[in-house]
UniProtKB/TrEMBL annotation:
<protein>
    <submittedName>
        <fullName>Peptidase S41</fullName>
    </submittedName>
</protein>
<dbReference type="InterPro" id="IPR029045">
    <property type="entry name" value="ClpP/crotonase-like_dom_sf"/>
</dbReference>
<dbReference type="Pfam" id="PF03572">
    <property type="entry name" value="Peptidase_S41"/>
</dbReference>
<dbReference type="InterPro" id="IPR005151">
    <property type="entry name" value="Tail-specific_protease"/>
</dbReference>
<feature type="domain" description="Tail specific protease">
    <location>
        <begin position="528"/>
        <end position="720"/>
    </location>
</feature>
């Protein structure tokens, strides 16, 4: 009788008689070629050839492609953002896109990505076939009852699809045959604390970061009545979850591998279907205390070596083969002498060399997909504003198909329209490579009852209080409606404010319709002005309000154009000592360090706003991390008297953060108009064509944990200017603050 036949006939009886594992191991070593332990493929072979696809997705193909690119870009093993982005540009060029072809060509160009045809198979109900005392388990959906007389288990991993629920099915399969948790390898993955700024180096803007580190994975829970010996049947191609399961169990010496070797890169990938094609995207490197797992985990017993065939998932090897494999005892350690060639995901950096400013349909499509994918992963307010980015992406891609993109301005406009759906006052888009305008409309505008009104003017023919009624013959209401459809904001007032800013840049003369406070409309041709008119609604300096009939009240303008630093604030606050009331004007953007100012204005312990960072520990683990923190008061100088806080549509971000804490501490009465409802540090996304897209990168809540985004600072007392007030130089909001501090009403 040959040694093979002897093993197949008597392997189970040896195990039952309690023969030492060393005897059987020696036989297997002889049969499989000494220390090679089966047929290990060269690690240089293309790992994707050994991956098993999963089903397609119900997502539209562009949305699915965006998700796949997002995985490769933010979590993949490729060297840079730029490599993945430019590959996306190349495969999306042309009059239209075949998304399956695009997925194939994209995988060919991006390291750590490969394309496969989707599988029609779904995850079937779990099954257990008893062959004597051996339980042959086919993982699947539902419960997995194990007969009490089972003495060994063989888990069949062959041709399991990369379908949702597979990882849980595998966990159930090992759980029912284990009484102790089964350890799993850690994964070295890229962690993101917010989206790292892609324009400014991290050392200059350290708000958000990314780094590469190990992420521990919870052991497989044990739910069984007894600890059974386990053998895994592996096929030439495995789904990522099945490959990961096999690597984990074999490295833990919890199971033998019978069949084909397992390529660890497959175990480190994610299945990302697009349409009829999908992609495996490698996002991790599996490691233990000794370092990275081998590139290939050899099969301990290769069925094909003995002419027994690999056997499809619909059939099993002979009962004698299964008996021989089932009672082998604990396997030896995996051979780790071969060098590991797989790289871990690298850290991502801001792009040091900006891309050229150029335009094409491929660039426009890629920019839209990248923007979509980045916000899908990092934008924190879908629970507040709703999730409309998929539909908006499809709308914008249809526009590209209808009108080929040949100019940077077209891409810019498409991205502005996409950003509108975010309802985020930080969502701006800049075409960084384009030349500056010839000049500017030399006015500062304010929103009065939904119309743009001139607040300040450096043009002799345009006056404060003038209401803009038209531009180049187009009614201003129509112009604003068009621009607001391309303007992202969280509150209506700030949306009108941001849209009206687009009147400022000029590349030639324009004719404006202007309605004076007398009700008469005139038409004025305006030439580009050399300077942009900037600043808050009021340029009043800090000091007494005696000129407005209130010598016992004091005023501090916190706008950075007026009060530029903490030292100037402390000087102004010192001058306010003894005042019966104080007006803080936060209708502009502050230049001071908010916490120091708040500690001098709030005489008791108070709390900051909640700053919640979106944190990804690899592509599968997401949570918000952050908190609100207590702050203690400061003195010399300080102020403990009544305070009115002025806010308006221009009060945004840092201005609002200051106001959130002041209102949270119930320290101020707020007068004016609702603020922008947008707070939190921005994320800058660098896109092909030298586009830069912004969005709010963290979730910010009031100190009591309540929602802020889209709510903003709501005044206790509404006050708003009219065109006549502006023309007469009356600061309606400041006058209302004086009235309140003097009368309490």
């Amino acid at each position: 009788m040959s040694s093979i036949r002897h093993l197949l006939l008597h392997g189970a009886s040896w195990a039952r008689r309690g023969q030492r594992q060393g005897r059987l191991t020696a036989v297997l070593l002889t049969l499989t070629g000494g220390g090679a332990w089966g047929q290990a493929q060269s690690s240089a072979e293309r790992w994707c050839d050994f991956g098993q696809a999963g089903p397609t997705t119900s997502l539209p193909a562009p949305v699915a492609m965006s998700a796949a690119h997002g995985q490769a870009r933010f979590f993949g093993t490729g060297p840079s953002y730029n490599d993945a982005d430019l590959a996306l540009v190349r495969v999306l060029e042309g009059a239209s896109v075949d998304w399956d072809v695009a997925a194939t060509h994209y995988a060919d160009r991006v390291e750590g990505v490969c394309a496969l045809d989707v599988s029609s198979k779904s995850l079937r109900p779990a099954r257990v076939l008893m062959l004597g005392a051996i339980a042959v388990i086919r993982p699947g959906t539902g419960d997995l009852p194990l007969p009490r007389h089972a003495r060994a288990a063989i888990i069949d991993l062959r041709e399991l699809p990369a379908a949702p629920g597979l990882e849980e099915a595998l966990a159930r399969a090992i759980g029912v045959v284990s009484t102790a948790p089964v350890t799993r390898l850690s994964e070295r993955v890229r962690h993101h604390v917010g989206m790292t700024d892609e324009v400014v180096p991290e050392e200059e803007y350290p708000i958000y970061t990314n780094y590469v580190d190990l992420r521990a994975r919870e052991p497989h829970a044990a739910t069984g009545r007894s600890e059974l010996p386990v053998t895994l049947l592996t096929g030439p191609a495995l789904a990522p979850a099945a490959a990961r399961f096999a690597v984990d169990l074999r490295m833990a010496r919890r199971a033998w591998l019978v069949g084909s070797p397992v390529h660890t890169a497959v175990a480190e990938s994610k299945w990302m279907p697009v349409r009829a094609r999908g992609m495996l995207v490698r996002t991790a490197r599996l490691e233990d205390a000794q370092g990275a797992a081998p590139d290939v985990i050899p099969a301990d017993l290769s069925l094909s070596r003995f002419g027994l065939g690999a056997a499809s998932s619909e059939s099993l090897p002979s009962a004698r083969v299964l008996q021989a494999a089932a009672f082998l005892g604990a396997p030896p350690p995996v051979d780790r002498t071969a060098p590991v060639t797989r790289n871990a995901p690298p850290k991502r950096f801001a792009l040091e060399v900006p891309p050229p400013s150029e335009a094409s349909s491929g660039i426009a499509r890629a920019d839209l997909l990248i923007f979509h994918g980045a916000t899908r992963l990092f934008f924190p307010y879908f629970d507040v504003v709703g999730d409309g980015i998929d539909g908006r992406l499809l709308e914008m891609l249809a526009s590209v198909d209808a009108v080929p993109v040949t100019q940077v301005a077209q891409t810019h406009r498409l991205l502005l329209r996409f950003s509108e759906v975010l309802q985020d006052g930080h969502a701006f888009v800049y075409a960084r490579g384009t030349p500056p305008p010839v000049g500017y409309f030399g006015v500062l505008l304010d929103d009065v009852a939904g119309e743009p009104v001139v607040l300040r003017s450096e043009l002799t023919e345009v006056h404060p209080g003038d209401t803009l009624t038209s531009i180049e013959g187009q009614p201003m209401s129509e112009w604003l409606a068009t621009e607001m459809a391309h303007t992202s904001a969280a509150t209506p007032g700030f949306k009108r404010e941001v849209a009206a800013r687009r009147l400022i840049n000029m590349n030639g003369p324009k004719t404006f319709g202007l309605r004076g406070v007398d009700g008469v409309t005139r038409f004025v041709q305006v030439q580009p002005h050399p300077r942009m008119v900037l600043g808050p609604p009021s340029l009043r300096e800090a000091g007494s309000l005696a000129d407005l009939g209130a010598p016992d009240l004091h005023y501090i303008n916190l706008a950075n154009q007026v009060l530029a630093n903490d030292a100037k604030f402390r000087t102004a606050l010192t001058a306010a000592q003894g005042a019966r009331g104080l007006v803080l004007d936060m209708r502009g953007y502050p230049g001071l360090e908010s916490y120091d100012a708040q500690r001098r204005l709030i005489p008791t312990t108070f709390f900051t706003s909640y700053l919640m960072y979106p944190v990804w520990a690899g592509p599968e683990s997401f949570e918000f991390q952050g908190d609100s923190y207590p702050m203690e008061p400061r003195s010399n100088p300080s102020y403990a008297g009544p305070i009115v806080l002025l806010v308006g549509p221009r009060s945004v971000s840092a201005a609002e953060d200051f106001s959130m804490v002041m209102t949270g501490a119930r320290r101020v009465t707020v007068i004016g108009r609702r603020s922008a409802g947008t707070n939190g540090a921005i994320s800058q996304l660098l896109l092909p064509g030298y586009m830069v897209a912004w969005f709010t990168g963290m979730k910010v809540l009031f100190p009591d944990g309540s929602r802020f985004h889209g709510v903003g600072i709501v005044p206790d007392i509404e006050a708003a200017p009219t065109a006549s007030d502006i023309a007469a130089g009356r600061d309606t909001e400041l006058l209302r603050a004086i009235e309140y501090l003097r009368t309490g009403q």
